[in-house]
Amino acid sequence: MLSAGHGAVYHYLGADTPLAIAVLLLVAKVTASSVSIGAGFRGGLFFASLLMGVLAGRVYAAGLELLAPTVLPGLVPSHAFYALIGMSALAVAVVGGPMTMTLLALEMTGDLELTLAVLAAAGTASLVTRRLFGFSFATWRFHLRGENIRGAHDIGWLRELTVAMLMRHEVPLLDIQTPLADARRRYPPGATAYLVATENGRYAGMIPPGALAETAEGEPLASLRPLLRLTETRLLPTATIREALDLFERSEADALAVTLPDGQVVGVLSEAHAVKRYSDEMGRRLSEVTGERLD
């Protein structure tokens, strides 16, 4: 019951199993799988769902056989037929992929008529699951890991595209003790789109470039500290592009400093560049799926 069920799938597809045994095995397998997943055991439910589907199909066929003499006279259900349909339908509800399961059934049987029935059952299972639950069980498992997906799309590249790969290493820096007049001479209006302030070599905040020019000439500023913004908001080089975009949205910043955990500034990343790289990568991944070239 705690194994994947590779051999049992093939055995119960063709074996003549009494109804009581099929029900007992189905209940035991469902219980064992639930306990395994709930306890945090590693592994998925693909082969387990195949076995549970086979057993559910056999239970359904046995039930039809009992009702056939009174309700459906002349019906002689094929247990293997319903076992294969049950296997495909339950697997689609658990892991998704209706076409995958349909082609698997065609490969196993070579029967086109049976494959059409499997296709109908798999499509129905997929629609019912999405209608009642919203997504497959496998997708829900990804949600528990913090992945915001609704379908079977490759999102691994989101973790591979990090801030360290996107940031600019040339950072316009200003020490917060720099006199305002010196800061204006070093960075006149239009010289840069962002300024990173440091204190004792560590990140202190961002200074909007326009703030230097907008500050009144006669306003006494002992330091640039009053001009600082986003003093507690920064990116780490190991952050993913998704984390960076989320931080841009929360902070409403056009650019953020990239620092090491100790506060040392190592780069700067603008929201415009991050969005462009994200869009370019999305387009490239889409072209790989569709086969179309995106110029």
Task: Please explain how this structure is put together.
The chain is mainly alpha-helical and 295 residues long. It has two domains: 6-144, no CATH class; 159-279, CBS-domain (Roll). Helices cover 55% and strands 8% of the residues. The chain contains 13 helices and five strands. The protein has a three-stranded mixed sheet. GO terms for molecular function: chloride channel activity. Keywords: Chloride, Chloride channel, Ion channel, Ion transport, Membrane, Transmembrane, Transmembrane helix, Transport. It comes from Ancylobacter dichloromethanicus. InterPro entries: CBS_dom, CBS_dom_sf, Cl-channel_core, ClC, ClC-type_chloride_channel.
Decide which structural class fits the backbone: mainly alpha
For the sheet with most strands, the description reads: 3 strands, mixed
Assembly of the depicted chains? single chain
Average pLDDT for all residues:
80
Subcellular location: Membrane
Main location: membrane
Keywords: Chloride, Chloride channel, Ion channel, Ion transport, Membrane, Transmembrane, Transmembrane helix, Transport
GO molecular function, one term: chloride channel activity
